[in-house]
Write a structure and sequence with these properties.
By secondary structure, this protein is α/β, with parallel strands linked by helices. Strands 1-2-4-3-5-8-6-7 form an eight-stranded mixed β-sheet, with helices on both faces. The chain has an eight-stranded mixed β-sheet with strand order 19-20-22-21-23-26-24-25, with helices on both faces. The N terminus and C terminus are likely disordered.
Length: 1349
């Protein structure tokens, strides 16, 4: 029986399971009913939490679960891996085989990196938990009933198969897919155009298709390697390796979602993962912005947000990527609550349906626009949408092609439950009657369900941000101004302040300067991000009332401000303009003239000029004519404004005729005829854009009664053809900035009666909007560095055939107006190879043309250098420095400190921050008060010759103590933010900062708190210390002061790169020299350094430097001047620093008052903080490097010449650093005993110092001749000398031999002679005595030789 029963059993089991499933479905009936508890089926084994599932096991497990829970689970594959493994997805919801309208879709994706395995198992456990507890737990049942849940345990099954259990750091080859491609670097990226071939990443291709088809609402991507929740954006345009916060439009919402996961995770919420490889890494609240952590290009979470309707964050679950299986149960315990809580957040914000108001049909792909959030999503196939939002009040719009947009204002979003908001969109043309519906604005009811209705069509008017100007029905009626009157200065000021306050999210009111009579020159910015320049967003401006008695422009611009503010968020065109343009509106450039003009004046001159009686439109520098009239404060303010903002397009509103006038306004001949600019075609195009929208202007007959013969074809005219205007503003805009400006004459009557004003608005409002649209024509893009992808400021954009270039803004973005056609566009920048791109310009939208330039000279930057390089480049941009100012705010209570308190404050800093501070006693004053210098560095006790040194000094005049207090606050700000702010931390780590708060403590102790008191200016001996710095004793006119000696020693004992001295009594920055010298070799650099400080000071930058208390004149160009021009004198600290310290020093005069009231210190700190920080950035610019020989030994004392004029010397370890103004430099190195060397380097205004590494060869020259030649000559000489010596020796030897032969013969004769004598003397006594007394002092040979001779 057994062999028969076994196959029967196998046959019956599936039938029984099928039957049981059928009964369950039938008994379920309504999908929302709960099921009774159940135990695992026969094909489903209990989870043990002690093993990993390989691909086969995972497949079997998921199939078993799907079979056991068919009513709520469905297993499918979205694609296959490189090696053919299925990418399994378990769908969990009621009726999982079909889509239910209105149910939000949620997904989890795990194991994207094959060796990060915890997520794979945890998601299997989550699937099991949801299925097993459905009908068992109310929370799980509710979640499954109301949510369409998709769970992908493994996106990279191939990588998992190669991973190895226990490898915490991951296994080589397991992270990536089988083609060795990182799947989380392979999605399309908003900041990087690189692509990966689809055949290399089938997993990514499959997931992208899945994301776009399903329109998920919320998602989580589970990883491993630490414990944190990371949210978009994952990268930025700067692609800085770390530390750059890349904020998305939904940043607050993303932070909230990340916190939901982190705060429910026992380890993650602490923010301290304590991972073995990164023990010191921490995350505030357990979350981080992706790019701030580290830059990830091509990540999946950003792709979901930008292309998939879906908000996704990335959860890092464990320090160990592939822990032992025994840890899995604990990982599930740690993450279970976080996984569930995060899923539940898919039910927050606003949801509903969008339908056709006539047919009732569902509308898919309708844009859901939330006012103030620059991120839209679209409806799904049933017309349903889910827009996650934080609790608050919102204006929400539905926008669809062919339908009248619909907006609901004041939608209330509460915590805990989504608000239902349905839209019924009215077709633009009603098929039944052919009529066009009227749209109105709807306010929501207090009910949780919001169904907007109107009397006729149940529709409301909307806001939208389509890519091109939306089609509007002819009778589309936005909200227009209802009150028209003339506004005097006080009335205008209140009007502007009112709208700035009422619409603060899109407005920013500021002043660019003051008129002669001290009235503010107000400008209102209207944009969705009004206070800063958005990368890629053009800047536009309108200027009115330049002639004080031409008032229509003034009133129209006030009307325009009201119109834009009131219609933002409800009118599609206005919303589009405000979202995509930064609009600057100056209602009155000549408020003084307006105040004396008279209503009803048609053609008069009263009030036309400013208070000094100068015509402001004849006061600008002219390209053809020399303007001799003094530049007026209003003119200077506008010129500075234009130089500081990258305007693209502008209009100057006048009165007295009805025409658009375009450049040029004059020519070199001074005759009235057509003066064509290089961009004549562009000017005609933008001029016509305005005139064609004005019902009277385009006819060309402006003022028949006044000028019956005057005619302007199409309502436009070339300026010089009409009449010549030397010194006009529109030409100055075009010639000196990037801005294209035209002049619009708005009517024949200059100062019409107030009752006429509604007529002017009606004639011009469409034209005003249409002209603004012209800023979005031509080409736009970004010029960036090929290496680091950061934008290049001041790069030149040139168009072949058009002799007019424009330059890029601070972050490398640009806009170039062009008429439709084909163009060759070239981008060039100092130090880069130019690039040319061909582009086709159309009429409908700007063509995007991006450039990436390659450097001519590569800098040798190591990893640490690259990090500093990126930081300096980021902080060089105005927004980067502004962000640093905002992020380093500290609590402070300003007061003036006496010398004793000052000492205590400095010592307190060293006690609280001992690791980065050191206090140096430089000396004592006459009255024995300490002169202290605080050093701030990451290692203040250890010399770091490669780090630049900067000196901040104050209090040389005791009656000007503002600088002292500013430097004390500056020191505290740096110390407090060290370790907290990445930028400050990096700057301190890479810089040696010396702060000397008070050089003259005796004078400060004597000073009076009065604005202009001289008491305390000098030291206790009555000496002005800034006249006592002399380099040699012969120059001293009196004894050397102890304070001077202390500072001279500091200046000469350290190789400072830059010094900043703070003083008072004026509002300007001065640069060397104080003594009257005629020429300064590096004056351009000194002036540049002064400008850096001034441009970051809100009052100095526009040249607003007038001081009524001391007679200082205002409008100093760029806020800087040579010191001798302010007050020439000898013996200054600045000059001593230059001549004997080889360090440039600038002096900052912080304010007109020498000793202002203490309550003004906070304002002065706010004015100077950014500028002081900019000096910490600036000290890292210029040229730096090291000089070594071929063996690597530093060459100390080598002389470095830059462009053959500027000279510096290498210090210990062979380092050198010199600050120079931007440009190309030739570097020549000379060192004794070494050959000279030359290199070229490019210095920019936005990058860290160009690093130069120089290796010197030993000098091969002797006496100016090549070493080889000298050695050869010496060798030849020595050879000749040796040969000569040999010859002499041989000759001498020959002579010696002959002489010896003679001696030999003489000896023989002597022997014979002796014998004879001996025989003869034997018998003679007398002979014997003679023999006895012979002289023995001579040798026998000498005697015989002598006798012989």
């Amino acid at each position: 029986m057994e062999p028969i029963c076994e196959p029967l059993s196998k046959t019956l089991k599936p039938l029984l399971l099928l039957f049981a499933s059928f009964l369950l479905v039938v008994s379920l009936g309504d999908g929302n009913k709960q099921l009774p508890p159940r135990s695992p089926g026969a094909s489903e084994t209990a989870e043990t939490y002690d093993k990993y599932y390989n691909y086969v096991n995972l497949t079997n497990r998921l199939r078993a679960l799907a079979q056991s829970y068919p009513h709520i689970a469905n297993l499918s594959s979205v694609g296959r891996s490189v090696e053919g493994r299925e990418l399994w997805v378990m769908r969990i919801t009621v009726e999982p085989d079909k889509d239910t309208p209105g149910k939000p879709k949620f997904k989890y994706v795990g194991n994207m990196h094959g060796d990060e395995t915890v997520s794979r198992q945890v998601l299997v456990y989550l699937v099991e938990y949801l299925l097993a507890n459905y009908g068992e737990e109310e929370r799980i049942t509710e979640l499954v009933n109301t949510t369409d849940i998709y769970i992908m345990p493994s996106m990279n099954p191939d990588g998992f198969e190669r991973s190895e259990e226990g490898k915490c750091e991951g296994k080589s080859g397991a992270r990536n897919n089988a083609k060795n491609v990182d799947l989380n670097r392979s999605f399309p990226d908003q900041f990087d155009a690189k692509t990966v071939p689809p055949d290399q990443i089938p997993e990514v291709v499959a997931v992208m298709k899945w994301i776009k088809e399903q329109k998920f609402v919320l998602s989580g991507n589970l990883h491993g390697g630490t414990v944190v929740a990371s949210y978009p954006y994952d990268d930025s345009a700067a692609h800085k390796e770390e530390g750059y916060y890349s904020q998305s439009a939904d940043d607050g919402l993303f932070r909230y979602l990340a916190l939901v996961y982190a705060q429910n995770h026992p380890v993650m919420k602490t923010g301290r993962p304590n991972c073995p490889d990164t023990p010191s890494e921490t995350f505030d609240d357990g979350i981080t912005n992706g790019a701030r952590w580290y830059d990830v290009t091509g990540g999946m979470q950003d792709y979901n947000y930008l292309h998939g309707n879906c908000l996704e964050i990335t959860m890092e679950l464990s320090c160990c990527k592939h822990p032992r299986a025994s840890e899995l149960q604990n990982e599930w315990r740690l993450n279970k609550e976080s996984l569930l809580a995060y899923m539940e957040k898919v039910h927050m914000g606003v949801h509903g349906f969008v339908k056709d108001a006539v047919s009732g049909a569902a509308l898919s792909d309708v844009s859901i626009v939330v006012s103030g959030i620059r991120h839209n999503l679209t409806t799904a196939k049933f017309g349903d949408y889910y827009r996650l939002l934080l609790p608050g009040t919102y204006n929400i719009t539905a926008v669809a092609p062919g339908y009248l947009p619909m907006t609901v204002n004041g939608v209330q979003v509460i915590d805990g439950k989504p608000t239902e908001l349905n839209f019924n969109l009215q077709p633009l043309v009603n098929g039944a009657g052919g009529s066009t519906p009227q749209s109105t604005t709807s306010a929501p009811s207090t009910k949780h369900l919001i169904i907007p209705t109107t009397e006729a069509y149940n529709s409301t008017q909307t806001q939208a941000a389509p890519s091109s100007t939306p089609f509007l029905p002819p009778d589309h009626k936005p909200i227009h101004p209802k009150e028209f009157r003339h506004h005097n200065y006080a009335d205008m000021e209140l009007f502007l302040r009112k709208y700035a306050s009422e619409f603060s999210s899109i407005t920013h009111l500021y002043s660019i300067g003051r008129s002669v009579q001290d009235r503010e020159l107000y400008v209102m910015v209207i944009s969705d991000n009004p206070k800063v320049h958005d990368h890629g967003e053009p800047e536009f401006k309108y200027v009115g009332n330049m002639h004080g008695n031409e008032v229509v422009g003034r009133e129209l611009l006030l009307n325009l401000i009201e119109f834009l503010c009131r219609n933002y968020g409800t009118d599609p065109e206005v919303t589009q303009l405000v979202k995509n343009t930064r609009i600057h509106i100056m209602p009155s450039m000549n408020p003084d003239g307006y105040e004396i003009a008279e209503e009803g004046d048609a053609t008069g001159e009263k009030g036309r000029n400013n208070s000094n009686n100068y015509d402001l439109n004849r006061n600008f520098p002219d390209q053809f004519v020399s303007i001799t009239e003094p530049r007026q404060p209003e003119t200077i303010a506008v010129m500075n404004w234009l130089k500081s903002t990258p305007f693209v397009l502008s209009a100057n509103l006048h009165g007295g005729s009805l025409v658009v006038n375009y450049p040029f306004d004059d020519d070199k001949d001074g005759r009235s005829h057509y003066s064509r600019s290089p961009d004549d075609a562009v000017f005609k195009q933008v001029a016509k854009a305005y005139s064609q929208e004005n019902p009277l202007m385009h006819k060309g007959h402006p003022c028949a009664d006044l000028y019956p013969k005057e005619y302007f074809a199409d309502g436009i005219v070339n300026g010089a053809q009409w009449y010549t205007v030397p010194g006009g503003m529109q030409d100055w805009n075009y010639v000196n900035t990037n801005c294209f400006e035209v002049t619009i004459e708005l009517g024949c009557v200059k100062y019409p009666m107030a009752k006429e004003l509604p007529k002017y608005w009606e004639q011009n409002w469409r034209a005003l909007l249409q002209f603004m649209h012209q800023v979005h024509t031509g080409i736009k893009g970004t010029v960036s560095d090929q290496r680091d992808r950061m934008g290049i400021p001041n790069a030149t954009i040139s168009v072949e055939g058009i002799d007019h270039n424009i330059t890029t803004a601070h972050r490398g973005d640009y806009w170039r107006l062009l008429v439709p056609g084909n163009y060759a566009i070239t981008a060039s920048a100092d130090g880069y190879t130019p690039v040319t791109i061909y582009a086709t310009v159309t009429k409908d939208h700007p063509e995007v043309v991006d450039f990436r330039l390659t450097r001519l000279y590569a800098n040798n930057n190591g990893p640490s250098d690259r990090e500093l390089y990126s930081l300096i480049k980021e902080l060089s941009q105005d927004q980067g420095l502004e962000q640093l100012v905002r992020s380093t705010a500290t609590d402070n209570s300003f007061r003036y400190r006496r010398p004793k308190d000052l000492d205590a404050f400095l010592r307190g800093l060293t006690l609280n921050f001992p690791q980065i501070t050191s206090l140096h006693r430089l000396g004592q004053s006459v009255e024995f008060r300490n002169i202290l210098a605080l050093e701030i560095s990451n290692n203040p006790t250890k010399p770091e010759p490669s780090e630049p040194k900067i000196r901040f000094v104050a209090g040389i005049h005791g009656n000007a103590p503002v600088g002292t207090e500013l430097l004390l606050e500056f020191a505290a700000c740096l110390c407090i933010n060290y370790g907290k702010n990445p930028a400050i931390t990096k700057l301190i780590n890479e810089t040696r900062i010396f702060i000397v708060p008070s050089i003259n403590p005796d004078g400060q102790a004597q000073a009076d708190e009065k604005c202009a008191s001289s008491r305390g200016m000098n030291n206790s001996r009555g000496k002005d210390l800034d006249k006592t710095f002399f380099g040699n004793s012969s120059q001293h006119v009196s004894e050397v002061q102890p304070e001077t000696i202390a500072m001279m020693n500091l200046i000469q004992s350290n190789d400072f790169s830059l010094s900043v001295a703070l003083d008072g009594g004026a509002l300007v920055v001065t640069y060397p020299y104080d003594k009257p010298v005629h020429t300064v070799n590096n004056e351009a650099t000194l002036k540049y350094l002064a400008k850096v400080y001034a441009k970051n000071h809100p009052k100095m930058r526009p040249g607003d430097t007038a001081c009524s208390n001391n007679g200082q004149k205002g409008n100093v160009p760029d806020g800087v001047m040579k010191a001798a021009q302010l007050q020439s004198h000898m013996g200054s600290m600045k000059d001593f620093s230059m001549d004997f310290g080889h360090c440039p020093e600038i002096t900052v005069y912080t304010g007109c008052c020498l000793f202002p009231a203490a309550d003004q210190l906070a304002t002065l700190w706010a004015e100077n903080k950014k500028a002081l920080l900019s000096m910490l950035v600036e000290v890292h610019r210029g040229v730096r490097g090291e000089v070594k020989d071929r063996s690597g030994k530093p060459v100390v004392g080598a002389t470095i010449f830059l462009n053959s004029t500027l000279k510096v010397f290498t210090s210990e370890a062979g380092y050198f650093h010199v600050l120079v103004h931007p440009g190309t430099y030739t570097i020549d190195v000379i060192a004794e005993g070494y050959e000279g060397q030359r290199k070229e380097v490019e210095v920019t205004s936005y990058e860290a110092a160009a690093t130069v590494s120089l290796e010197l060869d030993l000098d091969n020259s002797i006496f100016g001749l090549q070493r080889e030649f000298v050695v050869a000559c010496a060798a030849a000489s020595m050879t000749a000398l040796v040969l000569t010596a040999c010859i002499i020796w041989c000759v001498c030897s020959l002579k010696s031999d002959r002489q010896k032969d003679g001696f030999h013969r003489l000896r023989q004769h002597r022997e014979e002679y002796d014998d004879e004598i001996h025989l003869n003397s034997m018998g003679s006594k007398k002979s014997l005595l003679a023999n006895e007394f012979q002289d023995e002092s001579e040798s026998d040979e000498e005697t015989l030789y002598a006798n012989k001779i």
